[in-house]
Specification:
The protein has 15 helices and 14 strands. By secondary structure, it is of the alpha/beta class. Helix 2 crosses helix 11, helix 4 packs across helix 11 and helix 12 runs parallel beside helix 15. The structure holds pyridoxal-5'-phosphate.
């Protein structure tokens, strides 16, 4: 009789360590900077907003407000596991802004957008089920699915320069046929890592399709809006949410909001899941699970982070928007420089509209690896993603953007 020894740790889970390609390259870039000086290195690896001098942006309007909070506000527990009531209300207001949604809703405070996404996956899908994600996507979607013992199935993001609604439909239909339910992530607007933003018409098509598919079972769309407040046309950035009003009572939308980028407060773990559905009972059912999950994992999120978000976005809204607006303009300048040159020399990139990153299009996996390595050898540090190279223009000065596309094209051509 063979006795199989048990492990110290749980058995029924993937035991592989995190493969963090980002930190590995970030470290390489830092070593190179230490050796050769930062003027000689292009470090396009960092996914946070940096100013023109290469420093992390920490908005004054955000942190002066934070610093003015009473110590006891910072010391206190949140007033509820699902978040403070004023915070939950203000997250809803901030997320939808002028959009008039005729849907029932609730907000659960979460540690960043990560908490909102992972809690939705855990509380919508059962173990063994499949999450649909874009084929080029933030790597954590897969990690979150894996830790929930779920699988992922990718839909192709693009058909030419447009959202690939055909692939989205095919993927969702296949998943529905297998498990009688669909949870699909759409990371929009300002998709990480391509910077694509869907049109209102594309969103209408998505919702109309969800309505149709919902004849076979519930359809949940997880709209990850982590970068929404860096849209180039902020006033129009929520227009697509009008499409949500088309959804029927078998469709649910969870909008994952993050204070990390909106407030440049990545380490002050704060965000929210906005649950939207036709019927209050359905909203309540997910709210119950998410609240229990919060209690059983992170318990509650930082009280001061919530109070700060409310203050900044109400009492200091105009100054905050103005200060952040300058950086949105800067981001636009950087991307315009890069795109113009890329277009000029024929360096292919995925359709970029707005956001922190541009992603070069390299569909051949072998060439992708060689291209990425050849750039490292020339002190251009970027992140390899599925079928592409992520260039973090959010952390690169306008000056560093100049000539970069040309250099990249030259390196690429030398490999062919
Ligand atoms: N979603 C996407 C696409 C992201 O890139 C990030 C952060 O990098 C997040 C969500 C969540 O970030 P956080 O948990 O810091 O709010």
């Amino acid at each position: 009789e063979v006795c199989v020894m048990k492990k110290f740790i749980r058995e029924n889970i993937d035991h592989q360590p995190i493969v963090d390609n980002v930190f590995k390259i970030v470290n390489l870039a830092n070593d190179a900077i230490a050796k050769k000086g930062k003027e000689n290195i292009v470090n396009a690896t960092i996914g946070s907003l940096y100013d023109e001098d290469g420093n992390l942006v920490a908005l004054d309007t955000v942190f002066n407000t934070y610093n003015s909070l009473d110590n006891r506000t910072k010391a206190k527990y949140a007033s509820s596991f699902s978040g403070n009531p004023n915070f939950r209300k203000q997250v809803y207001n901030w997320v939808v802004q002028d959009t008039k949604l005729d849907l029932c809703h609730s907000v659960i405070g979460t540690p960043g957008g990560s908490g909102a996404v992972s809690s939705t996956i855990l509380n919508v899908l059962d173990e063994g089920q499949t999450l649909s994600i874009p084929h080029i996507a933030w790597g954590n979607y897969k990690s979150m699915a894996t830790i929930a013992n779920c699988k992922v199935q990718a839909y192709q993001m693009f058909d030419g320069d447009a959202f690939n609604i055909t692939s989205f439909k095919e993927t969702c239909r296949e998943v529905m046929a297998r498990q009688g339910k669909v949870l699909a992530i759409i990371n929009d607007p300002c998709h990480n890592p391509t910077g694509y933003s869907m049109t209102v018409e594309e969103w209408n098509q998505v919702i109309d399709f969800c309505n149709e598919l919902s004849n076979e079972g519930p359809v949940i769309i997880l709209d990850d809006i982590a970068y929404i407040d860096y849209s180039y046309n902020l006033e129009r950035s929520r227009d697509y949410m009008n499409a949500f009003n088309r959804m029927n009572d078998q469709v649910m939308i969870v909008v994952a909001f993050s204070c990390s980028k909106t407030l440049t407060s990545y380490g002050l773990r704060c965000g929210g899941a906005v649950i939207l559905a036709r019927n209050q009972e359905d909203v309540r059912a997910l709210e119950i699970l998410m609240e229990k999950h919060a209690r059983a994992s992170w318990s509650n999120i930082p009280n001061a982070a919530m109070e700060n978000f409310v203050k900044v976005t109400t009492e200091h809204k105009d100054e905050f928007n103005e200060e952040k607006g300058k950086y949105v303009d800067l981001l636009r300048q950087r991307c315009e420089v890069f795109k113009k040159e890329a277009d000029e020399c024929g360096l292919a990139y995925y359709p970029y509209k707005e956001g922190f990153f541009v992603t070069l299009k390299v569909e051949d996996d072998d060439l992708l690896t060689r291209f990425h390595e050849a750039m490292l050898a020339q002190d251009i540090y970027t992140i390899k993603v599925n079928k592409g190279i992520r260039v973090a223009l959010c952390s690169l000065s306008v000056e560093k953007c100049q000539g970069l596309a040309f250099k990249m094209k030259e390196i690429l051509d030398s490999l062919k």
